[in-house]
Protein backbone atom coordinates (compact mmCIF):
# COMPACT_ATOMS: atom_id res chain seq x y z
CA UNK A 1 0.00 0.00 0.00
CA UNK A 2 1.47 3.39 -0.91
CA UNK A 3 1.82 5.89 1.90
CA UNK A 4 -0.06 8.52 -0.07
CA UNK A 5 -2.54 7.84 -2.84
CA UNK A 6 -4.12 10.61 -4.87
CA UNK A 7 -7.06 9.26 -6.83
CA UNK A 8 -8.68 11.07 -9.74
CA UNK A 9 -8.43 14.43 -7.98
CA UNK A 10 -10.09 17.37 -9.65
CA UNK A 11 -10.06 21.01 -8.58
CA UNK A 12 -11.16 24.28 -10.08
CA UNK A 13 -10.78 28.00 -9.60
CA UNK A 14 -14.14 29.44 -10.59
CA UNK A 15 -15.12 27.76 -13.82
CA UNK A 16 -11.52 26.90 -14.70
CA UNK A 17 -10.69 23.28 -13.93
CA UNK A 18 -7.02 23.31 -12.94
CA UNK A 19 -6.64 19.69 -11.80
CA UNK A 20 -8.26 17.30 -14.21
CA UNK A 21 -8.06 13.87 -12.65
CA UNK A 22 -4.71 13.57 -10.86
CA UNK A 23 -3.53 10.07 -9.92
CA UNK A 24 -0.34 9.77 -7.92
CA UNK A 25 1.11 7.40 -5.36
CA UNK A 26 3.99 8.07 -2.98
CA UNK A 27 5.76 5.38 -1.00
CA UNK A 28 7.34 5.97 2.39
CA UNK A 29 10.79 7.46 1.95
CA UNK A 30 10.10 8.32 -1.66
CA UNK A 31 10.96 11.70 -3.14
CA UNK A 32 8.68 12.71 -5.95
CA UNK A 33 9.38 15.79 -8.03
CA UNK A 34 6.51 17.57 -9.74
CA UNK A 35 7.66 19.39 -12.82
CA UNK A 36 5.92 21.08 -15.69
CA UNK A 37 5.18 24.44 -17.26
CA UNK A 38 3.99 27.44 -15.28
CA UNK A 39 0.27 27.16 -14.62
CA UNK A 40 0.20 23.39 -15.10
CA UNK A 41 -1.16 22.83 -11.59
CA UNK A 42 1.88 21.79 -9.55
CA UNK A 43 1.23 24.14 -6.64
CA UNK A 44 -2.47 23.32 -6.75
CA UNK A 45 -1.70 19.63 -6.23
CA UNK A 46 0.21 20.46 -3.04
CA UNK A 47 -2.44 22.92 -1.91
CA UNK A 48 -5.19 20.38 -2.52
CA UNK A 49 -3.37 17.77 -0.42
CA UNK A 50 -3.45 20.02 2.64
CA UNK A 51 -6.97 21.29 1.98
CA UNK A 52 -5.99 24.82 0.92
CA UNK A 53 -7.63 24.36 -2.48
CA UNK A 54 -10.88 22.41 -2.33
CA UNK A 55 -11.09 19.30 -4.45
CA UNK A 56 -14.26 18.93 -6.47
CA UNK A 57 -14.02 15.17 -6.92
CA UNK A 58 -11.68 12.29 -6.32
CA UNK A 59 -9.92 11.55 -3.07
CA UNK A 60 -6.68 11.28 -1.15
CA UNK A 61 -5.66 8.38 1.10
CA UNK A 62 -2.85 8.61 3.58
CA UNK A 63 -1.63 5.40 5.20
CA UNK A 64 -4.70 3.68 3.76
CA UNK A 65 -7.18 6.15 5.22
CA UNK A 66 -9.25 8.51 3.15
CA UNK A 67 -9.05 12.19 4.10
CA UNK A 68 -12.44 13.82 4.46
CA UNK A 69 -11.71 17.39 3.38
CA UNK A 70 -15.19 18.48 4.43
CA UNK A 71 -14.27 17.92 8.05
CA UNK A 72 -12.17 20.66 9.67
CA UNK A 73 -10.74 18.11 12.10
CA UNK A 74 -9.72 15.81 9.24
CA UNK A 75 -8.07 18.73 7.41
CA UNK A 76 -6.13 19.55 10.57
CA UNK A 77 -5.13 15.90 10.71
CA UNK A 78 -3.95 16.05 7.09
CA UNK A 79 -1.90 19.16 7.89
CA UNK A 80 -0.27 17.33 10.78
CA UNK A 81 0.83 14.63 8.41
CA UNK A 82 1.77 16.80 5.46
CA UNK A 83 3.60 20.07 6.04
CA UNK A 84 3.96 22.50 3.18
CA UNK A 85 6.75 25.04 2.67
CA UNK A 86 6.19 27.77 0.13
CA UNK A 87 8.49 29.92 -1.94
CA UNK A 88 7.53 32.84 0.32
CA UNK A 89 8.52 31.57 3.72
CA UNK A 90 6.39 33.95 5.85
CA UNK A 91 8.34 33.80 9.07
CA UNK A 92 7.07 35.80 12.01
CA UNK A 93 9.31 38.85 11.83
CA UNK A 94 8.90 39.80 15.47
CA UNK A 95 10.05 36.44 16.78
CA UNK A 96 13.43 34.78 17.04
CA UNK A 97 14.35 31.80 14.91
CA UNK A 98 13.83 29.48 17.90
CA UNK A 99 10.42 30.96 18.59
CA UNK A 100 9.39 30.65 14.93
CA UNK A 101 10.20 26.95 15.05
CA UNK A 102 8.68 26.20 18.45
CA UNK A 103 5.53 28.32 18.25
CA UNK A 104 3.14 25.86 16.58
CA UNK A 105 4.22 22.75 18.51
CA UNK A 106 3.89 24.57 21.85
CA UNK A 107 0.90 26.85 21.21
CA UNK A 108 -1.19 24.72 18.85
CA UNK A 109 -0.10 21.25 19.90
CA UNK A 110 0.34 22.16 23.55
CA UNK A 111 3.61 20.26 23.85
CA UNK A 112 6.11 20.94 26.61
CA UNK A 113 8.45 23.85 25.84
CA UNK A 114 11.67 22.16 26.96
CA UNK A 115 11.12 19.09 24.82
CA UNK A 116 10.08 21.15 21.79
CA UNK A 117 13.11 23.43 22.15
CA UNK A 118 15.46 20.46 22.32
CA UNK A 119 13.94 19.12 19.13
CA UNK A 120 14.01 22.54 17.48
CA UNK A 121 17.72 22.78 18.29
CA UNK A 122 18.28 19.47 16.51
CA UNK A 123 16.27 20.66 13.51
CA UNK A 124 18.12 23.97 13.34
CA UNK A 125 21.33 21.99 13.43
CA UNK A 126 20.01 19.81 10.61
CA UNK A 127 19.31 22.86 8.45
CA UNK A 128 22.71 24.35 9.30
CA UNK A 129 21.50 27.13 11.58
CA UNK A 130 22.66 25.94 14.98
CA UNK A 131 24.26 29.34 15.59
CA UNK A 132 21.17 31.41 14.78
CA UNK A 133 18.64 30.49 17.48
CA UNK A 134 18.36 34.02 18.78
CA UNK A 135 18.45 35.87 15.47
CA UNK A 136 15.40 37.61 14.05
CA UNK A 137 14.36 36.89 10.45
CA UNK A 138 15.50 40.30 9.19
CA UNK A 139 19.00 39.46 10.41
CA UNK A 140 19.14 36.39 8.15
CA UNK A 141 19.74 35.90 4.45
CA UNK A 142 16.88 34.64 2.27
CA UNK A 143 18.40 31.16 2.19
CA UNK A 144 18.74 31.10 5.96
CA UNK A 145 15.15 32.24 6.36
CA UNK A 146 13.97 29.55 3.99
CA UNK A 147 15.86 26.96 6.04
CA UNK A 148 14.15 28.24 9.20
CA UNK A 149 10.83 27.74 7.37
CA UNK A 150 11.84 24.15 6.60
CA UNK A 151 12.80 23.57 10.25
CA UNK A 152 9.48 25.10 11.30
CA UNK A 153 7.59 22.66 9.05
CA UNK A 154 9.62 19.72 10.36
CA UNK A 155 8.91 20.72 13.96
CA UNK A 156 5.36 19.52 13.37
CA UNK A 157 6.76 16.04 12.63
CA UNK A 158 5.06 15.61 9.30
CA UNK A 159 5.09 12.24 7.56
CA UNK A 160 5.41 13.97 4.22
CA UNK A 161 7.10 17.27 3.47
CA UNK A 162 5.73 19.30 0.56
CA UNK A 163 8.19 21.81 -0.86
CA UNK A 164 6.88 24.30 -3.40
CA UNK A 165 9.74 25.98 -5.25
CA UNK A 166 11.54 26.72 -2.03
CA UNK A 167 14.59 27.99 -3.86
CA UNK A 168 13.07 30.13 -6.58
CA UNK A 169 12.92 33.39 -4.63
CA UNK A 170 16.58 33.06 -3.64
CA UNK A 171 19.69 34.56 -5.12
CA UNK A 172 21.71 31.89 -6.92
CA UNK A 173 24.44 31.75 -4.31
CA UNK A 174 21.85 30.96 -1.62
CA UNK A 175 20.16 28.17 -3.54
CA UNK A 176 22.90 25.64 -2.83
CA UNK A 177 22.56 25.80 0.94
CA UNK A 178 18.80 25.14 0.75
CA UNK A 179 19.33 22.28 -1.70
CA UNK A 180 21.94 20.86 0.70
CA UNK A 181 19.32 20.93 3.44
CA UNK A 182 16.86 19.02 1.24
CA UNK A 183 19.59 16.50 0.38
CA UNK A 184 20.19 15.97 4.08
CA UNK A 185 16.48 15.37 4.68
CA UNK A 186 16.47 12.93 1.79
CA UNK A 187 19.34 11.01 3.34
CA UNK A 188 17.38 10.83 6.60
CA UNK A 189 14.57 9.11 4.71
CA UNK A 190 12.06 11.95 4.72
CA UNK A 191 9.18 11.42 2.32
CA UNK A 192 8.86 14.49 0.12
CA UNK A 193 6.99 15.94 -2.79
CA UNK A 194 9.10 18.64 -4.34
CA UNK A 195 8.10 21.21 -6.92
CA UNK A 196 11.30 22.55 -8.38
CA UNK A 197 12.75 24.18 -11.44
CA UNK A 198 16.23 22.99 -10.43
CA UNK A 199 16.41 20.16 -12.92
CA UNK A 200 19.91 18.97 -12.05
CA UNK A 201 18.83 18.75 -8.45
CA UNK A 202 15.59 16.93 -9.32
CA UNK A 203 17.56 14.46 -11.32
CA UNK A 204 19.93 13.82 -8.46
CA UNK A 205 17.54 13.64 -5.53
CA UNK A 206 14.15 12.45 -6.83
CA UNK A 207 13.13 8.81 -7.06
CA UNK A 208 10.19 9.68 -9.22
CA UNK A 209 9.61 12.52 -11.65
CA UNK A 210 6.03 13.51 -12.40
CA UNK A 211 5.49 15.70 -15.43
CA UNK A 212 2.32 17.79 -15.44
CA UNK A 213 0.74 19.90 -18.12
CA UNK A 214 -2.64 21.68 -18.16
CA UNK A 215 -3.88 20.11 -14.95
CA UNK A 216 -2.96 16.56 -15.87
CA UNK A 217 -0.13 14.17 -15.21
CA UNK A 218 1.25 13.44 -18.62
CA UNK A 219 4.07 11.10 -17.71
CA UNK A 220 5.78 9.63 -14.66
CA UNK A 221 9.08 7.83 -14.47
CA UNK A 222 12.48 7.58 -12.88
CA UNK A 223 14.69 10.64 -13.36
CA UNK A 224 16.72 8.71 -15.90
CA UNK A 225 13.68 7.63 -17.92
CA UNK A 226 12.16 11.08 -17.80
CA UNK A 227 15.24 13.15 -18.57
CA UNK A 228 16.93 10.84 -21.04
CA UNK A 229 14.02 9.23 -22.76
CA UNK A 230 10.62 10.83 -22.19
CA UNK A 231 7.93 8.90 -23.98
CA UNK A 232 5.39 11.61 -24.62
CA UNK A 233 5.71 14.42 -27.10
CA UNK A 234 4.69 16.97 -24.47
CA UNK A 235 7.39 15.88 -22.01
CA UNK A 236 9.98 15.84 -24.79
CA UNK A 237 8.93 19.32 -25.80
CA UNK A 238 9.14 20.58 -22.20
CA UNK A 239 12.57 19.07 -21.55
CA UNK A 240 13.74 20.31 -24.93
CA UNK A 241 12.87 23.85 -23.91
CA UNK A 242 14.18 23.84 -20.36
CA UNK A 243 17.32 21.83 -20.86
CA UNK A 244 18.48 24.11 -23.63
CA UNK A 245 19.18 26.88 -21.14
N1 LIG B 1 -5.96 31.68 -6.48
C1 LIG B 1 -6.22 31.41 -7.76
N2 LIG B 1 -7.31 31.90 -8.39
C2 LIG B 1 -7.57 31.61 -9.67
N3 LIG B 1 -6.80 30.83 -10.45
C3 LIG B 1 -5.68 30.33 -9.89
C4 LIG B 1 -5.32 30.59 -8.52
N4 LIG B 1 -4.17 29.95 -8.26
C5 LIG B 1 -3.82 29.33 -9.40
N5 LIG B 1 -4.72 29.55 -10.38
C6 LIG B 1 -4.67 28.99 -11.74
O1 LIG B 1 -4.61 27.59 -11.63
C7 LIG B 1 -3.74 27.05 -12.61
C8 LIG B 1 -2.69 26.20 -11.93
O2 LIG B 1 -1.89 27.04 -11.12
P1 LIG B 1 -0.70 26.52 -10.22
O3 LIG B 1 -0.32 27.65 -9.33
O4 LIG B 1 -1.07 25.23 -9.60
O5 LIG B 1 0.41 26.26 -11.34
P2 LIG B 1 1.95 25.87 -11.17
O6 LIG B 1 2.18 24.68 -12.01
O7 LIG B 1 2.30 25.81 -9.74
O8 LIG B 1 2.68 27.10 -11.88
P3 LIG B 1 4.07 27.86 -11.51
O9 LIG B 1 5.16 26.99 -12.06
O10 LIG B 1 3.98 29.15 -12.24
O11 LIG B 1 4.13 28.03 -10.02
C9 LIG B 1 -3.20 28.22 -13.40
O12 LIG B 1 -3.93 28.34 -14.56
C10 LIG B 1 -3.43 29.39 -12.48
O13 LIG B 1 -3.63 30.55 -13.22
MG1 LIG C 1 3.50 26.96 -8.50
Intertermini distance: 39 Å
Q: Kindly report the CATH topology.
A: Rossmann fold
Enumerate the spans where pLDDT stays under 50 for 5 or more consecutive residues.
Answer: none
* Name of the level-1 CATH class: Alpha Beta
Strand content: 15-25%
Reported for the largest beta sheet, the result is: 6 strands, mixed
- The CATH superfamily is identified as P-loop containing nucleotide triphosphate hydrolases
Number of strands: 10
Name the bound molecules. adenosine-5'-triphosphate, magnesium ion
Continuous helix count: 9
SS-based class:
alpha/beta
CATH architecture label name = 3-Layer(aba) Sandwich
Helix content: 25-40%
Strand order of the largest sheet: 6-7-8-3-9-10
Q: What is the residue-averaged pLDDT?
A: 94
**How big is the Rg?**
18 Å
Instruction: Give the SSE string.
Output: EEEHEEHEHHHEHEHEEHH
The geometry reads as globular
- The tally of domains stands at 1
Topology:
Layout: E1 4-13, E2 16-26, E3 31-35, H1 42-49, E4 57-62, E5 65-66, H2 72-81, E6 82-85, H3 97-108, H4 113-126, H5 142-154, E7 160-164, H6 172-187, E8 191-195, H7 199-205, E9 208-213, E10 216-221, H8 223-228, H9 233-242
Helix pairs in contact: 3-4, 3-5, 4-5, 5-6
Bound molecules: adenosine-5'-triphosphate and magnesium ion (MG).
Amino acid sequence: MPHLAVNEVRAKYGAHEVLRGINLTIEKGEIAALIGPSGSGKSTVLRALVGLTPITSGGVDIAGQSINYKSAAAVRGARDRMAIVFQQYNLFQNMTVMRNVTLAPTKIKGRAKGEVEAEAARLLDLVGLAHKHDAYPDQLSGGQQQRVAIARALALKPQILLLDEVTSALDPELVTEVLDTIRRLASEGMTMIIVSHEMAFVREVANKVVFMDSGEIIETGSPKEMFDNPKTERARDFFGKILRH
